[in-house]
Amino acid sequence: MRFDVVTIFPGMLEPVLAASLLGKARERGLIDIQVHDLRRWADPPHRKVDDYAYGGGPGMLMKPEPIVRAVEELRTVDAWTVLLSPQAPPLTQPAVRCLAGREHLILVCGRYEGVDDRVRDLVIDEEVSIGDYVVAGGEVPALVLIEATSRLIPGVVGCEDSVRDESHAAGLLEHPQFTRPEDFRGRRVPPTLLSGDHGRVADWRRAHALRRTLDRRPDLLSERDLTDTQRRQLADFDLDRPEGARPHSCAPASNGDAEALP
Ligand SMILES: C[S@@+](CC[C@H](N)C(=O)[O-])C[C@H]1O[C@@H](n2cnc3c(N)ncnc32)[C@H](O)[C@@H]1O
Question: Are residues 14 and 140 in the same domain?
Answer without folding.
Answer: yes
